[in-house]
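Incident log, entry 3
Record: Universal stress protein UspA (139 residues)
Problem: checksum mismatch between cached and fresh output.
Input:
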Amino acid sequence: MAKRVLVPMDDSEMATHALEFAIETHPDAKITVLTVVGEPSSMMGQATGLALAVDFESKADEYAAPVLESARETAAAAGVEIQTDVAVGHPARAIINHAEEYDLVVLGSHGGSLSDRLLVGNVAEKVFRRSPVPVTVVR
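Fresh output:
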């Protein structure tokens, strides 16, 4: 039985389903929601904003706040408290690097961005293939 569960989340419906699944199937586990910000893109949006920020960590927390607040609300509705964490960089790499500290990773099958939907599960597939711990992919 998993005692520490990592649930990577973005602002997608699939990520919320993953959190709900983790809460339901691992009621006694310590659940941590991880949000990854600042992924470089062709438009350089978040990555540029982070690079130019005077207080890098505060800016990363600002970008992550809506996702983490939604996760807290989902957990509170189930009567559960969760831990939260923010990472910066490429989502798959950041999730894999964090996974070593957990017994299980539970993530949605694909994220909310258009590129994630077009590549259906690119991050999920990379995490599934390279994670040092078991991975549950939720649809």
